[in-house]
Design a protein that fits this description.
Blueprint: H1 20-31, H2 63-66, H3 76-104, H4 106-130, H5 133-153, H6 156-162, H7 167-196, H8 198-217, H9 249-252, H10 256-277, H11 279-286, H12 293-325, H13 327-350, H14 354-383, H15 388-395, H16 397-419, H17 429-447, H18 460-477, H19 485-517
Helix pairs in contact: 1-7, 1-8, 1-19, 3-5, 3-15, 3-16, 4-5, 4-8, 6-7, 7-8, 7-12, 7-14, 7-19, 10-14, 10-16, 10-17, 11-12, 12-13, 12-14, 12-19, 13-14, 13-17, 14-15, 16-17
Amino acid sequence: MSILSRERIVADASYNRWLVPPAALLIHLSIGMIYGFSVFWPSKGKGLLTLIGNQCDAMTTSLYDRLFITSCDWLLSDVVWTFSIAIVCLGLSAAVFGHWLERAGPRKAGFAAAILWGGGLVISSFGVISHQLWLIWLGAGVVGGIGLGLGYISPVSTLIKWFPDRRGLATGMAIMGFGGGAMIGTPVAANLIDTFGVGNALLYMGCFYFVVMTIGAFGYRVPPADFKVEGKKVIKKDTAMIAKGHVHVSHAHKTYQFWLLWGVLCLNVSAGIGVLAVAKPMFQEIAAQNFSAGEIGAIAGGFVALLSLANIIGRIFWASSSDYLGRKLTYAIFFSLGTLLYFSAPWAGLNQYIALFVLINLVILTMYGGGFATIPAYLADIFGTQHVGAIHGRLLTAWATAGILGPAIMSYVREYQLQAGVPQAEAYNSSFTMLALLLVLGFILNYFVKPLDAKHFMSDAELSIEKAVAAKKDSDNALLVSKGESNQIVQKLILPIAWIVVGLPILWGIYNALLKGIIIFH
């Protein structure tokens, strides 16, 4: 297993850093399918809510009963828990394994993610076939969720160190794949479901993602210690917010800035993830009177695809913009504009302005994705880059919390509204208002984020020892990349191929999303 170790993938200064983002994208485009999971549980047509043909009665069957029941279909809130469990396990595994990843390297973490995410989907396929909800929760939720966490954090620290001149752009390139995974995977999953059923669709996708993620993991390289980009100037627009030193991972959580940023991420994510968790059934219910029964399923799938497109655009656009705007101002825009949009969405839905409702949600999703892509650079600005990967992993426990909070607000408030006699098309209005209030709180927390006091940074002696140890390991073990002319030629040949491999699926996903989504605006 030494081929997976960090020491085997240390590059020298001549390595082309633009070969690393495609490897990260292969992994993130695969695990990003979690955002498209609502394609598996529509209440009309083929889905997890229609396997048997009659829905369980929430009043006579408990949640525990429904974990094992085979005589009736699950409730929407039951299957949405699969998504929430996956996000919780993502955040927890990122926190637990973040420091380990800094030592073990991104290849080992990426390969482990391939096994767990692919294997988790396979386990879930058996849960569908046997109609055992607990197996679906275990597979896509727990096992797959741990794979999500490892895969998500695997490239972040590496790319920040490869691109010290463009921290926002670097994390945006990696994390945009997570936002775009559903854009590619959702139409594929829909076709597989229609052809082979939900269970087989999960099985086939699990096997495919394992192969793709393994290729991505073996494409990772890490930069040598103190890597610098010749002739490039680091953008430092908001210099007051950019740390001059480095905070150790064991000390970061003892600062109030860490917990403010934890709250900032949690609240931003809660709002956006609530929409994503129920995107397809929500659109079907709100827009039902504008489309025929035969059209609504396909058009709702187009809505999910457009949300994924907005997610991926937001990750690269807002993260890159934050290099110029500053991270704090970028988040202030997210919370202020987002609050207005969340208050506006129920009005648009109530008046059946479907195109406007879609546009509002698309802008919301750009800021949701942008929040994810910007937070690693925000952390690097506040805490320095030495332990940013491990600190980022711990901060992702905020995502775990949001993975429960956002979907719970959307699904449980909806069910309460329906029981109270509210029309189905209006059942999400109160949920949107609650999410808007979360963003108001997020704006306040972000306002209080200030630069760290100098006492929190590692001393020059401590930092020198860490860097000296890393430099010695890197120089002793840089086995795979040489400075030879032939190596440079190979890199030049591989570079366009690598970008074509990840670029073509993204372009296809964009084309497909626009093709399906444009019907909404007719």
